[in-house]
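Practice problem: predict the structure.
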Amino acid sequence: MVTPGKDLPLLVVVVRACVTVCLMCPVMSFWATLIFKQPGIEFIPVWMQTFVCNFPMALCWQVFFCGPLVRKLFRTVFAKQLAAEGA
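Answer:
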């Protein structure tokens, strides 16, 4: 989809965040449906409703808050290693 170093860095970050959410949200919605909603025989509709309700929030959370926070944290923690690699 994108090539790091070749495509825009912002595009690479957003695509990576979207792919992460597209993989994690259905799985986490599945487990949330099993554990908290106890749907019984109507599992598929309840799971799909949970997924559709969770997806927009998960995507916004990943793109605008959690992703930037984790990248900032990693840049801070590994600043010396990044400086040594860049020099």
